[in-house]
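Teaching assistant's notes for section 4

Start the section by putting this record on the projector. Ask students to predict, before seeing the second block, whether Integrase will look compact or extended. Collect guesses on the board.
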Amino acid sequence: MLYSDPRETKAKDVTSGQIKHILAGIIQRGAVVHSNRIRSYLMAAFNYGLKADNDPMNTSAGITFGLEANPVSVIPKQSSAEKVGDTWLTLEELAFSNGTFC
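Reveal the predicted structure now:
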């Protein structure tokens, strides 16, 4: 399915399918951790728009994004890419990293 260019789409018209398509392209080129970062940035941007639209203090500004929901919220984070390592620094490595060279 072809999607319109999201850069030319109003925030209220962006769909979860478009976001999924963009993130899938990033994942397919092997940048799974990067796709999580992009997902996070998009999630924050849409959350900002939702809060701005629904903040009673902003009613006089006249600027609205027209968002009803965050299209990123239904797209899961790729948790398999965020694995925590199981190695520890030695005392020598820790001292070196702190600049106290043993």
